[in-house]
Amino acid sequence: MRSGLRRAARPLLRAAADRLHGPRYLRARRAISRLEAHDLGSGYRGTRRRVLVLYDPNAIALSQVHPFLDWRRIAGAGDLDIELKAAELPAHFAAHAASGLKALPDADTVIFQPDLVRLGDTAPIVAPALRDRYPDARLVLLDGTPHSGFLGVEGVVDAIDAYVKKSSLADRAAYARPVLGDTVLTDYFARRHDCPLPEATMAVPDRFWAKLIVGPAFITDRRIMPLFARPFAEIGGQPRTIDLNARIAKRGAPWYAAMRSDADERAGALEGIAIARGQGLKLKAFMAELRQSKCTFSPFGYGELCWRDYEAMAMGSVVIKQGMDGFVTAPDLFDRDETYVPVAWDLSDFEERTRAVLADEDRRQAIAARAYGRARDYLFGGGLGAYLRQVVQG
Q1: Cβ atoms 278, 247 nearer than 8 A
Q2: Which residues, 6 or more positions from 242, have their beta carbon under 8 angstroms from its beta carbon?
Q3: What does the pLDDT read at residue 366?
Q4: How far apart are the first and last CA of the chain?
Q5: In a designed cystine with 61, which of 102, 116, 134, 245 is the match (CB 3.0 to 4.6 A)?
Q6: Where are the beta strands (DSSP E) in the chain?
Q7: Does 227-380 match 31-221+383-393 at the fold level?
């Protein structure tokens, strides 16, 4: 396949892959990888700033990468004087960090995303290896995990120029306190539900903070981002027949299963309201259901941020979620009682707060409109473009 055809085929394959699941998704990703690998070997063609993006093909991680792959379409970034190449970071890279690096093209900015599942183990290997290969480049690590914990920071801080995270704790001193597991979520819910986990400290050296950039999470997923392009009036004023959407997955690690089961039981105990519960609904039907839902219960998952937060906001449904006061996110869509309805982490006030917002239609409309508007302004009003510039250029 000629180089021009390969370049044209990549975005089409990426868009198709984003809509697939299971084996079909993996086959599409392999096809994309073959095209990308060939493209890397051709080097850069011009004199613009050379940007290399190496990413994890995990769906959770990809939502963080999409703005870079689609940078020409981002408001405020389309005139960046760059040439960007992208390829998957092979899963075996950490075990063979020294091999294959010479085959990568020279670059002025290298943005890399270690293995989402084993980030704490692989990042301290990948970052120094890339620094050796690119001693003069701007080296940026994308942390694709959905929680506010930092894993393996001590092993990467001196190799990188910037560290991009989807959220962080507002109280930086909290990172020095021991936790059960590896995040404030595992600590709180393991203790609450008596789930044994080893104790650890999320040690973050002081010199790290100057390199931290808090960037967007699932809102920049290729499936979710376009949903915010419509005027809010198109989705906000329609009748809604479902009071509360509460479809909650419960299988997982013991602390996660206990936390999510508790959330499901609290929702199921509500009487006198129309509620959507259960699992197994296909994505298209689920999104249509959100558009019919006045409120959506989006409890914590393995991280504080969830796909459902942004899916619900995009559909004009008010998000009810454990309080996010202690977290820094971008954009800030978790302004209590302004853009979402916060509840206690132990859900002790869940029923009271849910019934209160359901009883006040004007308040619901105002919260939904503010959340949608902030998201839309960030994505299409220049905020996302400014973030890309900061990452690429510093």
Answers
A1: yes
A2: 274, 275, 276, 289, 292, 293, 294
A3: 97
A4: 36
A5: 116
A6: 49-55, 82-88, 109-112, 138-142, 162-165, 167-169, 178-180, 199-201, 212-214, 242-245, 275-276, 293-297, 318-322, 327-329, 341-343
A7: yes
Q: For the stretch 117-139, what's the b/e string if a residue is b when 16 or more beta carbons lie within 10 angstroms of its beta carbon?
A: eebbebbbbbbbbbbebbeebbb
**Euclidean distance between CA atoms 133 and 98, whole angstroms:** 9
CA distance 325 to 148: 13
Instruction: Report the share of the chain in percent with pLDDT over 90.
Output: 70
Does residue 193 contact residue 185 with C-beta atoms inside 8 Å? no
Report whether the peptide linkage leading into residue 196 is cis, meaning its omega lies within 30 degrees of zero.
Answer: no
Mean pLDDT of the chain: 89
Q: How confident is the model at residue 361 (pLDDT cuts 50, 70, 90)?
A: very high
Q: What are phi and psi of 75, to 5 degrees?
A: -60, 130
pLDDT above 70 coverage of the chain, percent: 86
Residue 176, CB-side half-sphere exposure with 13 Å CA sphere? 5
CATH fold for the domain made of 31-221+383-393:
Rossmann fold (3.40.50)
pLDDT, tens digit, for every residue of 299-316? 999 999 999 999 999 999
- Domain 227-380 is classified in which CATH homologous superfamily? Glycogen Phosphorylase B; (3.40.50.2000)
| Spacing of C-alpha 299 from chain mean position | 16
- Rounded distance between C-alpha atoms, residue 27 and residue 21, angstroms: 10
Joined together, the tokens standing for residue 78 give: 């389309």
Do 28 and 16 meet the contact criterion of CB atoms below 8 Å apart? yes
**Residue 79: its pLDDT value, please?**
82
Asked if 93 contacts 126 with a C-beta cutoff of 8 angstroms, the reply is yes
For the chain, domain boundaries? 31-221+383-393, 227-380
Question: Which residue type is seen at 372?
Answer: Y
Give yes or no for residue 26 having a pLDDT over 70.
Answer: no
Give the DSSP letter of residue 11: H
pTM score: 0.90
- Kindly tell me the sign of the dihedral angle through the C-alpha atoms of 179, 184, 186, 192: positive
- Please say whether the beta carbons of 360 and 368 come within 8 A: no
Instruction: Decide if 165 contacts 151 (C-beta within 8 A).
Output: no
